[in-house]
Design brief:
heterodimer; A: mainly alpha; 5 helices; 0% strand; B: mainly alpha; 9 helices; globular; disordered N terminus
Chain lengths: 94, 199
């Protein structure tokens, strides 16, 4: 595929491919052409723009999940049985 | 362990056991496995040559050990999955549900009916998110958790699971689509034509 036809293909990529680029954005630097295709696409495609915002928001939620679980009124913890089993194992190993 | 004081692993268990358990539980998603990892962590801390300095870093030190145990656990899971031939599932139901074969939308994402900023204040939201994370299939969850919760570099995640970067990116993408879809179904609902929620 020539450079020109490759550029054309990326700039005309369907929404599924653009969605993949949105995800790649989190994991690797996009090429200049990919960045351009993504930017142009979300300017006119409302569903893709929405998907991008929601994927970004979801990612931020996941990032905050560990600290939020620590703040729960009754955060989950070791069961009494598991705690006792670990305690005994630690005593054996002292 | 107090700085310079006696090593007391039972005190570690009392002070940090639950936090270590939650840390592991969120990542390995099975309470028995999480408890086993807590035990292995404390045993390693007891027998290990390295020590920390200062009380405030005690939990951080133990979590550092636990993180290595979690990576080892995922490495082991990946080896077992490779041996059993269960690494890949051919069809990507999430992408199929969202997009047609030609890559156009089949079901477009809708506006979220609840304001995400308000949701962040509610414990139920975080429990829902946890449940969504719990619902990810094994082959997507491991890479996603190491990448997004552990903040591991993509190259390291590839090493843990013995997969290529292209494979990792595909798995992460599918996990993200699933998680977004789960939040939409279980928390945000949809609001056609509404103005609130995330664009």
């Amino acid at each position: 595929m020539s450079r020109l036809s490759r550029a054309f293909a990326i700039l005309n990529a369907p929404c599924a491919h653009i969605a993949l680029l949105m995800s790649h954005e989190f994991d690797r630097p996009l090429s200049r052409l990919e960045r351009c295709a993504l930017w142009l696409h979300v300017v006119y495609c409302v569903p893709c723009r929405r998907l991008r915002a929601q994927m970004r928001a979801s990612r931020q939620f996941v990032e905050r999940l560990p600290e939020q679980l620590e703040r729960l009124e009754r955060p989950p913890g070791l069961s009494p049985e598991a705690r006792e089993r670990i305690r005994l194992r630690l005593r054996e190993s002292k | 362990m107090e700085s310079g004081g006696p090593t007391d692993p039972e005190q570690w268990l009392e002070l940090h056991g639950d936090s270590l358990f939650r840390y592991a539980m969120l990542r390995v998603r099975r309470s028995e496995t999480a408890a086993d990892l807590v035990q292995e962590t404390l045993l390693s801390a007891l027998g290990g040559p390295s020590r920390f300095e200062g009380r405030s870093s005690e939990r951080t030190w133990l979590i550092g050990i636990l993180r290595n145990k979690i990576s080892d656990y995922f490495r082991q899971c990946a080896r077992e999955a490779a041996m059993l031939g269960t690494v890949e599932n051919a069809a990507d139901a999430t992408a199929e549900a969202l997009f047609r074969a030609d890559g156009r939308w089949r079901a477009t994402p809708e506006r979220w009916s609840r304001d995400p900023a308000d949701s962040l204040e509610r414990a139920e939201f975080w429990l829902t998110l946890w449940a969504c994370l719990d619902g990810l299939p094994e082959n997507l969850a491991g890479p996603f958790i190491l990448r997004e919760l552990e903040g591991m570099a993509p190259e390291e995640v590839c090493q843990v699971f013995g997969i290529t970067a292209t494979n990792l990116w595909a798995r992460l993408h599918r996990a993200r689509l699933r998680l977004r879809g789960c939040l939409e179904r279980r928390w945000f609902g949809t609001k056609r034509g509404g103005e609130s929620g995330s664009e």
